[in-house]
TrEMBL record:
<dbReference type="InterPro" id="IPR043636">
    <property type="entry name" value="L1_RRM_dom"/>
</dbReference>
<keyword id="KW-0175">Coiled coil</keyword>
<dbReference type="InterPro" id="IPR004244">
    <property type="entry name" value="Transposase_22"/>
</dbReference>
<feature type="coiled-coil region">
    <location>
        <begin position="3"/>
        <end position="79"/>
    </location>
</feature>
<feature type="domain" description="L1 transposable element RRM">
    <location>
        <begin position="75"/>
        <end position="165"/>
    </location>
</feature>
<protein>
    <recommendedName>
        <fullName>L1 transposable element RRM domain-containing protein</fullName>
    </recommendedName>
</protein>
<dbReference type="Pfam" id="PF02994">
    <property type="entry name" value="Transposase_22"/>
</dbReference>
Amino acid sequence: ATLNSIVESLKTLTNAIEEIKADNRDFLHRLNEVEQRTDTLEEELEKEKQHTAALDSKIAALAQRLDDQENRARRNNLRILGFPEHIEKGKPIQFLQDALPKLLGLADGTQLEMERAHRTLAPRPEAGQRPRPFIVRFLKFQEKEMIIRKAKERGALDWEGNKILIFPDLSKELQEKRKRFLDVKKQQRDHGVEYGLFYPATLKIFLEGKDYSFTNPKEAQAFWKKWEQSTKENLQP
């Protein structure tokens, strides 16, 4: 009886072990399926990431192209700030054709050719608020450039007690790109170094008969630091 019970127990144990083995085989099979699905999902995710990156690149390129086209369309435009509201009395071209030559010290009889001029489309300011700028489109690019040059030459511009500022009319994105050079431009001014910010956003530094161009402000900063360091070393006895 004892031997039979032992045999029965062994059979029961053997059956239990076989069931565990079967369960393990089933578990391993399902685990393998899960791993295969995971690999497939990871591959699909990687493909989707690559596709998204390609789309982002295309969108960025299109945005840059649109911004470039916008700025080319504004090529002959100037943005003029500071003239009080209503001073033009509904005739902005006539007013600016009279005011700008006097403001910039242009030769008597200078007739500026303007295609159009208007205030920006922002809401009309309340009394005491900053007046809206004029947007002016000149017929000739050279004439627009001449006005910018004359404004720089004369420095601070004053019209009947109002400070007048004249800028190229650029897109917001391009304005931001150019603003990034403010710190390095200040360094050049402080050291009396000749420089220029050229369209669309290229800084040129003129040193010892050479010019160095930068489209990245960090690269310009690094160049200037290196130049300063080498200059100091050369001055040491």
